[in-house]
Amino acid sequence: xxxxxxxxxxxFVGEALSRHLLVSGFDVVGSVRSNTAHSQHLPCFxxxxxxxxxxxxxxxxxVDVVIHLAARVHVLKETAPDALSAFRQVNRMATENLARQCxxxxxxxxxxxxxxxxxxxxSDKAYSDDDKPKPQDAYALSKWEAEQALTTISADTGxxxxxxxxxxxxxxxVKGNFLRLLRWxxxxxxxxxxxxxxxxxxxxxDNLCDFIKVCIDHPEASGEVFLVxxxxxxxxxxxxxxxxxxxxxxxxxxxxxxxxxxxxGMLCGRRLEVERLCGSLTVDSxxxxxxxxxxxxxxxxxxxxxxxxxxxxxxx
Length: 316
Fold this sequence. Notes:
Elements: E1 3-7, H1 12-23, E2 27-32, E3 44-46, H2 57-60, E4 65-68, H3 83-104, E5 109-113, H4 138-157, E6 160-165, E7 168-170, H5 176-187, E8 202-204, H6 205-217, E9 224-227, H7 236-246, H8 258-267, H9 271-278, H10 286-292, H11 300-314
Parallel strand pairs: 1-2, 1-4, 2-3, 4-5, 5-6, 6-9, 7-8
Helix pairs in contact: 1-6, 3-4, 8-9
């Protein structure tokens, strides 16, 4: 039986992925920061805040595949005085340390959850793995540097590397902008996006977990970078309509010119949020289908409905 270590197992993706893999018959263990943060459904190793000095020997014992989810995550308002240094310490240097220990202890494969932000922030055409990376902030740059370090380690040691760059991940337990949008829709607050004609790729949590599961053993996954998303991209007003329908509410979508929304965002200190709601970012997942025979098993609509069901359940 394949033994898998998931770092950051008690996070948004980690909790769902660990359950998904357990049901699929894998032997799963996790790493967490402290004993008080243990997952309730599988053995965990407390490793503290991960950094270049973290010792992984005990957690890696008998492990065949590591799925590295733990990271310093992106936030819209980063407060660290030296953000790039802070991101590099965790996302690049700690990742490199873990990967080298994996190679030394005979781990076969290392699956790294990166981000579409390595490619860029907005796109007129769908991003693919062939595009030249254009990270725009400290978080994205640190993830890109980690990818490069992993490629070097693979060449030096033979450790199989798989890199996954998802766009926004949503599902039960989601936080950030997606949760904020759910709250706005549920409140009945007018959302002036009727004239927005953008396209945003996202990936449902169950679809992402399914893809990562395929990457565990598929021989063609080794050494590859994959951009993965749900089958369709959505315009912001269409996303709001699907959310509202699942909530059995009527969406309130007044029509405001897109340029006016950008001006409002600037005046209110919400420029980045408006850019994400009005701009386009799409992903070409064809490589995942061509090489691995993978396609998302769940529709975007069903994934949004599951997320809404979780959200409304949390309200009661």
